[in-house]
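Researcher: Sequence recovery benchmark, item below. Answer with residues only.
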């Protein structure tokens, strides 16, 4: 009765919800969660803003032309804007479980658009360090990857990959620090079978790509033949920001996400 008399507010904009949806975000905010569009790097999925650069084949961003990333292919569904940021933080810190399945549905759309690139034998979530997992009680990437695996009819094997080095306590890291702190921070669990597997690696946010790269290197070292990365959102330069996106609540920023 109290929920009827006092409707819950939208977790993004604060407006009262008209009904009691499983996802505490209003339709208007959900409608803003749109796929990254335009010319994309064929390897990592970074948007290519220059029409001249888009005519060059293969279509690669400056990072991928340098061969920086070890994964075979990566895509992110939406820009990490105000709406995506708040929604991901709700899953990450408030454990709004229905959001995990909703994000998984969006990622499934990306896979249906390019099934060959995402061909896989198993689904693996980017892991948290054991201490962080105990502190939080769950891994937000698993809350996305597990329902996605069910949708795809693939086994979900969270135990294949472990984080061996904790994330620094420092909240905001430079790009160089992001790469340095994940280098060698992941490994396959002893006794697990990874050899010759095609792995679909799932995380919440692609910030610099350092995390997907580090995880891919660990999986390849153990014998994985292919690693495709898939994230809910991607941090883009300001030139890619959508002007209609709403303001992110103070303190919510990519520095607080786990994917870097």
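Model:
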């Amino acid at each position: 009765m109290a929920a009827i008399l006092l409707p819950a507010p939208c977790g993004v904009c604060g407006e009262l919800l008209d009904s009691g949806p499983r996802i505490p975000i209003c339709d208007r905010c959900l409608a803003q969660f749109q796929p990254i569009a335009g010319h994309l790097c064929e390897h990592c999925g970074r948007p290519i803003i220059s029409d001249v650069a888009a005519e060059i084949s293969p279509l690669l961003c400056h990072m991928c032309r340098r061969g920086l990333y070890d994964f075979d292919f990566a895509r992110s569904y939406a820009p990490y804007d105000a709406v995506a940021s708040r929604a991901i933080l709700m899953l990450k810190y408030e454990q709004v479980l229905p959001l995990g399945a909703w994000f998984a549905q969006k990622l499934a759309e990306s896979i249906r658009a390019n099934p060959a690139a995402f061909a896989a034998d198993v689904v693996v979530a980017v892991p948290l360090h054991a201490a962080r997992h105990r502190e939080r009680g769950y891994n937000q990437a698993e809350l996305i990857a597990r329902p996605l695996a069910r949708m795809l009819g693939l086994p979900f094997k969270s135990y294949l990959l472990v984080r061996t080095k904790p994330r620094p306590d420092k909240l905001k890291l430079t790009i160089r620090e992001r790469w340095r702190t994940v280098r060698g921070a992941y490994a396959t669990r002893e006794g697990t079978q990874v050899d010759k597997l095609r792995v679909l690696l799932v995380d919440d946010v692609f910030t610099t790509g350092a995390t997907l790269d580090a995880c891919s290197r660990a999986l390849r070292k153990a014998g994985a033949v292919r690693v495709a990365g898939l994230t809910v959102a991607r941090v883009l330069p300001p030139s890619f920001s959508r002007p209609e996106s709403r303001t992110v609540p103070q303190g919510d920023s990519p520095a607080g996400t786990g994917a870097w």
